């Protein structure tokens, strides 16, 4: 039995910050780790945008409550959970993701925590440095073979550390810079690549 | 967000070997880690019993396919998955447990593999030594607070390693020998003990 580590945003659900950007009319929130690879820098930028707009946490949560998993995501995930122990490894926050996890059938999620005060996002706490790579290392320490799939720069350490890494729906730039990883464009592609390994 | 490590047999599903003992009329298979604390010794004993009876793997699987989670287990687990990242940590085998995991909503399961040849159980492969303690250690290395609940001797290392360990429906002997752990007799008790921590 292998473990499958899956990124969340862009793989199973929409990019949360981009959805907030659209609904709140804050185009500056459209940047992702695809644009600013350094996560700390990106989060600092987002916090500044939120503070300037004085956007409430409950407003953001209402946007997230209105999101649905990507089309086909639940069916893919249900299929994957028959053959793998699936762990979602994300740089999002439990406070954001929880409503969507219920719609995905409560897969195990390893991510981070937000600090919310007076209905405003006051900060965030990364669980540890290099979080995605660390998860794969910990699972390998339990003698599990680990596969991993993700779409963006912050997934690269996880894909590197896994026994097999797959880029899913990744921008061309990411694929070009990391030709060592197989690339899947659809859940069908991903099922074929995973099925060949199980 | 804390992680909750749950034992499987005796906590969420019936004891598989005892069910096989009953249905196959092999009373010798009724022994558990409650009776023979050393898991290797217990498994050697079980393998001998199976070989002498020439019991087929498919016969055992048919027994397991007929099992249901313990009454209230699914509701308890659904509740737990709202507030914790739940990981089932068991000394059973994927080849046994998979049908039951579907009925529990596919929680993440860390356990072991059987070796099946010619429809007979030919052996088994423990994922690693001290497997339950190792899982908790790995999760703590990811900076997750970890709670753990189990019913038997093989759970003690997991309960010791966790930030908080709970004995669930454990025999009096186990409770007496490990007074350091809170004891829950029902899912209601367990919810109360867990809820007080979250």
Provide a compact summary of the structure:
2 copies of one chain form a homodimer. Chain A is of the alpha/beta class.
Q: Can you characterise this structure?
A:
Two copies of one chain form a homodimer. By secondary structure, chain A is an alpha/beta fold. Chain A is built from nine helices and seven strands, in the order βααααβαββαβαβαβα. The first copy, chain A, has helices at residues 16-24, 39-53, 57-65, 73-83, 94-103, 131-140, 156-161, 172-177, 187-195, and strands at 2-6, 84-93, 108-117, 120-125, 146-150, 164-168, 182-184. In chain A, strands 4-3-2-1-5-6-7 form a seven-stranded mixed sheet, sandwiched between helices. In chain A, a hairpin with a 2-residue loop joins strand 3 and strand 4. In chain A, helix 3 (57-65) runs parallel beside helix 5. The longest helix of chain A is centred in the N-terminal third of the chain and has 15 residues, at 39-53. The N and C termini of chain A lie close together (8 Å).
Number of helices of chain A: 9
- Biggest protein-protein contact in the assembly: A-B, 28 and 28 residues
Work out the radius of gyration of chain A. Answer: 16 Å
Strand numbers in spatial order across the main sheet of chain A:
4-3-2-1-5-6-7
Structural class of chain A: alpha/beta
Mean pLDDT of chain A: 94
Roughly what fraction of the amino acids of chain A lie in strands? 15-25%
Order of helices and strands of chain A: EHHHHEHEEHEHEHEH
The span between the termini of chain A is: 8 Å
Q: In one word, what is the shape of chain A? A: globular
The biggest sheet of chain A amounts to: 7 strands, mixed
Low-confidence stretches of chain A are none
Question: What oligomeric state do these chains adopt?
Answer: homodimer
Can you give the helix content of chain A as a percent range? 40-55%
Strand segment tally of chain A: 7
